[in-house]
Amino acid sequence: MLIAARNLLGLSQTEVSLDSGVSRKTIQMAEAGTAGIASVEKLMRHYQGRGISFIQRDGAAGWGLRTTFMNYDYGDEPSLPES
Fold it and tell me: Which of 7, 39, 79, 82 could link 35 by a cystine bridge, Cβ 3.0 to 4.6 Å?
């Protein structure tokens, strides 16, 4: 999910590292599933602050992502959020 969140934002590991304060090595470990929970939670908070919501799994479906910055369907013209 961390790789998907980063890719949805169009960011490299280096860009996330510079913006979040999490080292690139730790980001690599988190994306590989070998980092500690504190690092994973810090990255999740970072992505959440940029419009990514993590959807917890339930009995019938797995984990997922939702964005707040993509408010149009594929092929439609993007519109600005209402003020």
Answer: 39
Compute, in degrees rounded to 10, the torsion defined by CA atoms 65, 30, 10, 49. 60
The sign of the CA dihedral 81, 47, 15, 4 is: negative
Q: Is the pLDDT of residue 81 over 60?
A: no
12 in Cβ contact with 2 (< 8 Å): no
- What does 9-71 look like in DSSP terms, one character per residue? TT--HHHHHHHH---HHHHHHHHHT-S-HHHHHHHHHHHHTTTEEEEPP-SS---EEEESS--
Tokens of 50: 């940029």
pLDDT (tens digit per residue) in 49-74 = 999 999 888 877 777 888 877 665 66
Q: What is the pTM of this model?
A: 0.76
